[in-house]
Amino acid sequence: WTSILVKCFAFTVILGREGVINTILSWAFGAEVHLPLILNRVGTLVGMINWQVPIVVLSVLASLLAIDEAIYRAAAIMGAKPARIFWTVTVRLSLPGLFAGLIIIFVSSLSTFMVPALLGGPKDNMLSNLVDYYTRQVLDWPKASTISVVLVGMSLILASPVAIWRRRKASR
């Protein structure tokens, strides 16, 4: 739960050209290794995954904790083996938490600009970086607002099937 800014700077130390990973690989192979792990898509993905995984874990954990123990006992009494109980009970009942976590991280990933700016570099921009670029550097407000509308539209497109599903489920 450390600040994303602190995590990004820590990843620059870990993933950098002379960082921890390249130093360990150079020591292991006995030759200079300089894997490009930062200022590209790899750095962005590592930073985004590290930032977003706890959110999904908490959503799935909430779903798992909400499962009644009686369901497991009933499945065992009916003769289901542990693997079958896992797939038919645990996985199916944790899917709402997984989907909720995925929606949350998708929407928050649309709006993040710090991780791609610090770990991805200028060649690996996301839409939120373009909004920042067009509002602060180029001062092209119409283009920035167009990109912002696209971001909102993407969020609505993702959220509308979930809203429709919930409305249908509530009407049953």
User: Averaging pLDDT over every residue, what do you get?
Assistant: 87
- Secondary-structure element series: HHHHHHHH
Shape: flat
Strand-pairing-aware structural class:
mainly alpha
Question: How big is the Rg?
Answer: 22 Å
Provide the fold topology:
Layout: H1 4-15, H2 20-29, H3 41-65, H4 69-77, H5 82-111, H6 114-120, H7 127-136, H8 141-171
What does this molecule look like?
It is a single chain. The protein is mainly alpha-helical. It is built from 8 helices and no strands. Helices cover 78% and strands 0% of the residues. The radius of gyration is 22 Å and the shape is flat. The model has no long low-confidence stretch (mean pLDDT 87). It has a domain at 53-125.
Summarize the entry for a quick read.
This protein has 172 residues and is mainly alpha-helical.
Features:
8 helices; 172 residues; mainly alpha; 0% strand; flat
